What we know:
Blueprint: E1 7-16, E2 19-29, H1 31-82, H2 92-104, E3 109-117, H3 119-126, H4 128-145, E4 150-156, E5 159-165, H5 172-186, E6 189-191, E7 194-196, E8 199-207, H6 214-230, E9 236-238, H7 241-263, E10 267-275, E11 281-291, E12 297-298, H8 300-309, H9 313-328, E13 336-340, H10 351-362, E14 369-373, H11 382-394, E15 398-404, H12 411-416, E16 421-424, H13 439-452, E17 456-459, H14 465-473, E18 478-479, E19 488-489, H15 493-501
Parallel strand pairs: 8-9, 11-13, 13-14, 14-15, 15-16, 16-17, 17-18
Antiparallel strand pairs: 1-2, 3-5, 3-8, 4-5, 6-7, 10-11, 10-18, 10-19, 11-12
Helix pairs in contact: 3-4, 4-5, 9-10, 10-11
Amino acid sequence: MSRPQLYAAAYMPLAQEQDxxxxxxxxxxxxxxxxxxxxxxxxxxxxxxxLAGFAFALPALLALWHAxxxxxxxxxxxxxxxxxxxxxxxxxxxxxxxxxxLMARKTEFAVHFIDLDRFKxxxxxxxxxxxxxxxxxxxxxxxxxxxxxxxxxxxxGDEFAMVQELAPADELASMRLARRxxxxxxxxxxxxxxxxxxxxxxxxSLYPRDGQNRERLLVAADLALYAAKRAGRGRAVxxxxxxxxERRSRQALEARLRQAVEDEDFEIYYQPxxxxxxxxxxxxxxxxxxNAEDGAPISPAVFIPVAEELRLIDRIGQWVLREAxxxxxxWPGSISIAVNLSPLQFLSGSLSTIVHxxxxxxxxxxxxxxxxxxxxxxxxxxxxxxxxxxxxxSFGVSIALDDFGTGYSSLSYLWRFPxxxxxxxxxFMVGLGDxxxxxxxVLDTIIALGRVLNLHVTAEGVETREQIEILRxxxxxxxxxxxxxxxxxxxEVASVILExxxxxxxxxxxxxxxxxxx
Length: 518
């Protein structure tokens, strides 16, 4: 008899009158139930195993996910730390890192500093969104001309840089790239409906020629860029030792100017101005002078532009005006004082207030003061300048247009602005006595124009008697030049005045035609 695979057994004896006759064996089949229980247990076990596995695997999975996110975040942070947000180019720190890597490998390379010209005009005229779009376009052009061995960075604002690996002894490749940069940025840019034409100045230094360390190399590139901008912008300039010497001289001059402003350590020379008879003293022109620390004179053509760049010219101009007017109060009332104005003195809009203050402080008769300005003043914000000049004119002060004929000379300026005098540049004196020269015809035309507009005309740079004779024939009003008198210190002005006041036996001076009231 076969038994079930899984069963339970029960035994019961068979007895008759106390005698056991046999045993009954009973089987209960548990196979199906066992299989069911086994299935349940297996399923439960599998579930428990799965849950246990998941419980142990979840932290591992989370750890892997966090690790990947950390890597992604670290990559983003490295990108942000090394790239410019606006253009996507490398930033300054990444550029420095690249330079350090090349130096460590002893690789020859060039550093190009790039500064955009006239970018501020785009920002001012079209707004910062257009300016930002322009910077992105510039970045695209720089990347386009860069090869794999050239990295491009934005240093900030409108300043960019390139680091260019060079083949040994191939320094010319650096200047070829620098000129390509200038050419690329000269082409017009289009940002939507806005077209912009700017330019770029590039300064280049070479490793190891121009610097054995990073700091020295970057300074050399910066000095070369400064030289490029001073040379007229839109240029590529490689570093040379003379540039550094020029920079040191510039720094010394800047320091001397700042000290002179604080200490009022300038000097004014006075150059006489005569009627065309060459004898009648009419005025003195105040000319600013500055000496170096060692006493050597510094040319005004050198230090005045620097004073303008440093925004020191306002303080210097006020000092000159006050000092000249104070000195002129010691002269006879028939002698005037002429003071030059820088174009930058008009920008603050307070020039008329300053002039009025000086007149009150010194007590000089306003009719004895003439302020000289050049045509460059009129090129920017002419309406605002006209308003200031009209106020100054209302004080009784005269206005002269200096260096007439050498700039933009527009008749509209003479019609609109309240000038009293035209000062003809000394360059017209060259060749005045030469019959083949047209200087006499030009001067004759200018003097005739002055007569029509009721303006006096002063000829500068007179150095010969022949020139005076011609100017007298042309009925020029006043003359000024080394022949008649060089600039002198304030202490020497008295002797010039006394000499002019001496009675003379010669014929009386030419009487100038009377000017009609303005």
